Sequence to fold (375 residues):
Amino acid sequence: MLWWGLHALRTCGLVQEIILIVHPEDVDRARSLLADAPPEITEKVVCGGAARQDSVRAGLEEVTAGTHLVLVHDAARPYLRADLIAACLQAARRTGAALAALPATDTVKWAPQGPLVQRTLDRAQVWLAQTPQAFRFSLLCEAYQAAARDGFVGTDDASLVERLARPVELVPGDPQNLKITQPEDLALAELIAQVRGLAPPGLRSGLGYDLHPFGPGRPLILGGVHFEAAQGLVGHSDADVVAHAVTDAVLGAAALGDIGRHFPDTDPAYRGADSLQLLAQAMGKVRQGGWEVVNVDTVVICEQPKIAPQADRMRDNLAQALGVGADRISIKGKTAEGLGFLGRGEAIACQAVALLHRLAPTSSEEAPHAHQPDR
Ligand code: MG
Fold:
């Protein structure tokens, strides 16, 4: 997050000095980001204070003397655009103080004492403040001195200037200039990163293949469905080629190895095992890795039995094991046209592809170094 904001400031062509203000524990990590600083920009890292305002003040103390304009930006807003930086600086050059802000699109209720509404504000008059906020350096220093003298604490820097009765100009902000505050904001942040080409799409595909020979005295189980047949497939487990191919496809998409790694056929625990249960266990590992199934498609290659009459039952079984709706699962039967060992009916093979998408982080997950909202 910090790098993306830093990158925007470095590449906008308008910034001569960047001061990163971070938690004392993060100083070393922040310094490591400065290793690839462009030579024309001075960059340094400063320890922040207990509150936001203390942090900005610590940063202002490090600004090179004689600087004309300063820009304050919240690193929790990584999707900063160069044109927004330019617009804020231009307005601050004109007015003395300027901030990016969005017009309110939701209706705004005034409820100073809790759940009961006192009145509805005219949303046409309400703007929601973002950063960057840009200031004449001397004006912002004056505003900080006055705030310190009066014990005033604001939730942004512009409010410190407003209380001096000096003009502050609104600059149309950017809805994608999202402030990542709560863990659930990360899901939206990730989408924005993908749309902007900053992060790879959260999609992965996997390929699975399995084959088992026919043998006497075995049940024939495909996709968890018991087929009426004279002989079944030979294997350490129940030899369900469809479940095995799908298991390898989902494990493969999540780069978690293959079925043999997780359920070795040398382990007596898996003798005659219900392969749908193994699939469900494998899917649990895939989900723990942060992935969920978009869809699975399979081709079952055999001369006998006929797959189509049982395809819906097989889909239901696989869908249940994978924890998704059956509409995401496809089963297709194909013969080998009498050719080769599959055509001679000596074995059944199955191919599967799985598409996974990255699970959105949920609010129950612990967010490392969660940013504290300014409330
Ligand atoms: Mg197998």
